[in-house]
Amino acid sequence: MSTSRTTVGHRPENLALGAALTTAAFFCVALVGTLAKVSGQYTSTGVLLLFQNLICLVFIVPVVWRDGWSSLRTSKIGLHVTRAVTGTACWYALFFAITQIPLANATLLTYSAPLWMPLVAWVVTRQRVARATWIGAGIGFAGVVLVLQPQTRSFHVGEVAALAGAVLLAIAMMSVRWLGATEPITRVLFYYFLLSTVLAVPIAIVDWQAFPPRAWVWLIALGFAQLFSQILIVVAYRYASAEKVGPFIYCVIVFTAVIDWIVWHHPPTLYMYIGTALVIGGGLVAVRARAAPTPGGG
Q1: Does residue 26 sit within a domain?
Q2: Of the residues 32, 143, 155, 254, which has the fewest C-beta atoms closer than 10 A?
Q3: Which residues of 34-48 are buried (b: 16+ CB within 10 A; e: fewer)?
Q4: Where in the cell is it found (predicted)?
């Protein structure tokens, strides 16, 4: 569910095209959540998770076959496992959350992940984080609090799951960033889909729920939406760097809110509007702070 970057096949920069492709990629991510919510009416979260990864694995295997199995040799298997475990757990948390709370709320809380990334980076690397990055994260967290409105009610289990998904996604995103420094994209995707499928199998067995034939259409569509999101983001990074198009991750929040409003008749509340603006604004401040050079290399 996270993005990666590569220099393989890089073309002259075209920021407009890169931004358009990234926006399309995160529209597909919004479709993943939508299709999971529809599919969840017929079967369990574990089954959704399995189909999402298995279909992508089926399509990535021929690519690896063409490149040769020697292309899978890696010295970063631990990082691949970390990415797969956190990414799979994040998707499970999101799929569960959308069965409990409105799709837009679950997506906003989960995709507040970039706000957690400075904390994850600091815990892992102990490198100093720019003050502006913390300020941006603080603004974003204020938006999360507005959406949760803890002063008026207790936390819902779906909200807790979505927030857990955000932390897991932040770790997965950082893992991909570190992998992208040395690993080609095909290898990153193959290990992610392979390990995620392996992880999803026992979950699906324990959580198995028979589903009617009409559910096949939705489950297959779920897998293809995930596959297209990955393909589009890979192509986008051939035209623009991850740092420049990364902020477009927030498109998924807007797309999902519109879909939730149209399909499930959950119009955004005033708190949702303000909270979304703060999450996106805070995230953009944090991203710009990370991208900007600071004296002393901070």
Answers
A1: no
A2: 155
A3: bbbbbbbebbbbbbb
A4: Membrane
